[in-house]
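If your schedule permits, I should be very grateful for your opinion on a structural question. I have a record of one protein: its chain in single-letter code and its fold written as discrete structure tokens. Would you kindly read the sequence against the tokens and tell me how you understand this chain to fold? Thank you for your consideration; the sequence and its tokens are set out here.


***
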Amino acid sequence: MLPVTMLASQKLANLLTSNDALEQQVANIAALTNVRIPPITSQQIVLSSASPDIGDKNIQLTYPRVCLYSTAVKNTHLEKFKSLSGTVSVITEVWVSGNLVSDTDRWIHFYVEAVTEIYRQSVGDLNDGFYFSGAYDVQFQGPKAGGLGFAQSAKVTCTLNISQN
């Protein structure tokens, strides 16, 4: 079995990749708003905490991309008879790049809306002792030079409740 931190990230990645959910959600938003938005395929959703600089130079990840990773585990031991009872924090980091700052600055909001819509639809039991309440926090980063000209990112932080023996 995967370590709890990797399993938590994988649970959220599965929500985004199952039946190409994120790709479909981005396409739906694009159609509703009549805006051309580059698709995010399931292959562009990875478990990695590599920074954009490292991802661009060493891993050669493509844009747009979504990276998921855990940042903290808190064993509050609220359930006496469980060895792990608490929370796991998982970040879904969305990266976008383009030739124009105006494109990256616009697209990042559509991608975050697509990710958070999938999360809002996925409240509940994620199996293996993980439960998602639906709560999340979003932080946008400003555009900077990088990627295909300019790069921008946003972090969606989710806290999963965990209860395991």
